């Protein structure tokens, strides 16, 4: 089996129906779908719907929780149950292109080597619109022992990735329990991966809404990421790449996301937090960080060079 799709469900019939329907239309059926329902109080109609889908789909595995476990525990459960060569995390409401599985299959056959992490492109809607921003080269096999730029420029969202299951198990890579540390999982996986491939095709649609967990978890996990690389002995050689990824997430992705929540107090708190973390650091970063100096993300480069005035203006207008 090629791919295990993993969904955490809250029993939203309309959304999960769209996702399951898009899977039914796949031209290549070499996949399984693992659905974990994490809401024990979901309406009976929604439970009946999930059961009906399970009975109608031979390649679907359905798990019901007696009490809510949280995303991390549920994803770890799915990793134990998965049978595919690759696993990918998708959301209720994601719509997969009919050629999703076949596109992955063709790309893997064309490279004829084991790829540990595959990054595919998505069409985003909601809080963020447009095709996934990617600053790595399409269709290039990155040898991660040599191509350090992947650590800097990889898209940090857990969605839009496929992970080779056996190597995750070999290195016992799992999600940290009790917290939503998606990027920690991603960078732990990246730290042990040997190969990375970004494919050029846009093969799914993904809607981004307001987070159901603390937005600060997006940045609070970064000390754990950096400490993990210190522990496995690779931080020094990846210092610039990891600090570029951290700085971009903190100053750009995090603030951009929180600004769209229509929560003025939260945004003000985020601005002050980022300002305190980056005070007196960005000038040296912009002058000496090799990943920043080589970056083709010109929007981010311009943003950092103007960050001091940006943060001052935003704090002034969000008193």
TrEMBL record:
<dbReference type="InterPro" id="IPR050834">
    <property type="entry name" value="Glycosyltransf_2"/>
</dbReference>
<dbReference type="Pfam" id="PF00535">
    <property type="entry name" value="Glycos_transf_2"/>
</dbReference>
<protein>
    <submittedName>
        <fullName>Glycosyltransferase</fullName>
    </submittedName>
</protein>
<dbReference type="GO" id="GO:0016740">
    <property type="term" value="F:transferase activity"/>
</dbReference>
<keyword id="KW-0808">Transferase</keyword>
<feature type="domain" description="Glycosyltransferase 2-like">
    <location>
        <begin position="4"/>
        <end position="109"/>
    </location>
</feature>
<dbReference type="InterPro" id="IPR029044">
    <property type="entry name" value="Nucleotide-diphossugar_trans"/>
</dbReference>
<dbReference type="InterPro" id="IPR001173">
    <property type="entry name" value="Glyco_trans_2-like"/>
</dbReference>
